[in-house]
Amino acid sequence: MIGQAQLLKQIDQLIMDMDLPRFTIIIGPAGSGKKLLASYICDTIGYTSVCCENKVEEVRNIIELSYKQNQPTIYYYPNADGMSIASKNALLKVTEESPQNSYFIMCISSDSKTLPTILSRGQRFYMQPYSYMELYTYAKDAKKLKEKEAKIAAEVCNNPGQINTLSENSITEFYKFAESIVENIGQTELFNILKVTKRFKLGNKTEGWDLGLFIQLIQYICVKKYKETKNVIYYKAINECCLNYSQELNINGINTSMLLDSFLLKLGDILYLI
Hints:
single chain; about 270 residues
């Protein structure tokens, strides 16, 4: 793993003291390394580990099995954001009456993705922000990006997972495209603005540019440009616009095509006035 030095030190100490929590909750956004941290715990402590599904029937079966274990076993839920209320309620049992030889790890993107009672009974570990140098080093060494692209990746992305996604396509081409949007969107007709949606990975499409990273890239380019002009009003407007649309992307079932259209139109309104 890159980064997370304090978190790893804390976990190493718990394992060394044979004091691993019976119910561990790892919290962080997509791409922050939650699954890697869970794997690190399993590998370091050396217990048998079982990757579990979120379906309520599977959760109940695992809970029943956990009380019968003779050997230490870790049950690991890597994508617990997708758990139903019924599955979460089922898991409450092991937070109330811990099985003797069983441990549970749940990975979620934020506190709101599970029940408050589970949060209060488990031990939470929050993934820490990555520094520019950690991200730059990852982009340069792990992803083998060229100097310029590695710098862009480290500036725009918040974590290694986002760098992985960004590097699936040409970063230089993506950056130039975003720059052209910023330069021309205020003077571009509506039809031409909305045509760009074909280039993105939206809905069921598995190829194309990532919408979340596009918004972050636009924010980076705009903030960099308008910081130079010291135009505080538009600097704040761009920041607020990008942050709002980034948050909307996290809403379950959001129509990403409509969200992109709306973002481009809003961006056009702001930049047209500059």
